[in-house]
Amino acid sequence: MKTIEALIVEDNPENQLFLSYLLGKHCPSVHVIGVVATVKDAIQNISDLSPDLVFLDVELSDGSGFDVLTYFQPLPFKVIFVTGHLDYAYQAIKFNAVDFLFKPVTAPDLIEAVKRVSQKELTEAYQERPEGARLQFENPSRLILREVSGFTIIETSEIIKLEASGNYTDVYLTGMRKHTYCRILKEFVKLLEAHPNFMRVHKSFFINLDHVISYSKQGEIKLIENLTAQVGDTFKKKFLAHFA
Questions:
Q1: pLDDT tens, 166-210?
Q2: Which domains does the chain have, with CATH numbers?
Q3: How far apart are the first and last CA of the chain?
Q4: Element (H or E) spanning 186, and its range?
Q5: Cα 153 to the chain's mean position, in Å?
Q6: Cα distance between residue 93 and residue 234, in whole Å
Q7: What is the distance, to the nearest Å, from the Cα of residue 208 to the centroid of all Cα atoms in its chain?
Q8: How far lies 67's CA from each of 33, 46, 83, 130, in Å?
Q9: DSSP states of 126-177 as a string?
Q10: Is the pTM of this model over 0.70?
């Protein structure tokens, strides 16, 4: 088994020790060649040691983990984000398919993340993915949704509703636009649940409350551009309370 030389970039001493311990116990293919706590030291150590893999905290005392990635674009190493802050950023990064661990790190999640990273080649597409995550991290009012042919940037204010369609989700946008993604609605709900303008109103509908026109006692919500959604019984109380 090929040894993976890894650098840990983490500003919390306890988290540094815990991650090092988990790697030593559960990931024998990973050899930790350094542990640093700042953007400055991360850049210096990456330049000097040329690690294969970097465990990167998003929020550091002297900046962001994305500052490290920007310095080395395109990336000469693989990345696993490790963070315990900003739930919205967590969902955005995860949705954007960048390797990710959420604190507190668990052994099964760590093992799986290392396994995924070891199987990936350092292709041009992989090297550029963290840039998309950075853009979404810094501007959560925009969604960056990756597709086979590239990616689409969507302003959240333009989303009218999202509707489940089996293993797909239909995203209805202002201007009579519609996108369909091969992702279940739950993934979008997790991505947008921290956004105050969005609400799950049915197992099949997730709507932008700013685009609601009316509601009937039959449970039908009228939205702009002649779109509709249904309110499920378990969601009705919360929905009505918003407009009380």
A1: 989 999 999 999 999 888 998 888 888 778 899 999 999 999 999
A2: 4-138 (3.40.50.2300), 156-242 (2.40.50.1020)
A3: 62
A4: helix 185-192
A5: 14
A6: 30
A7: 20
A8: 21, 13, 15, 11
A9: HHHHHHHHHHHHH-TTEEEEEETTEEEEEEGGGEEEEEEETTEEEEEETTTE
A10: no
Contact 169, 163 (CB under 8 A): yes
Residue 87 has pLDDT above 60, yes or no: no
Tokens, residue 20:
């090092």
Distance CA 50, CA 40 (A): 15
CB 83 within 8 A of CB 109: no
Region of 127 on the Ramachandran plot (φ > 0 left; ψ -120 to 50 alpha; else beta)? alpha
Contacts of 107 (CB under 8 A, 6+ apart): 22, 25, 26
Q: Which of 68-72, 76-80, 127-131, 222-226 has the lowest mean pLDDT?
A: 127-131
Structure tokens at 56: 């990167």
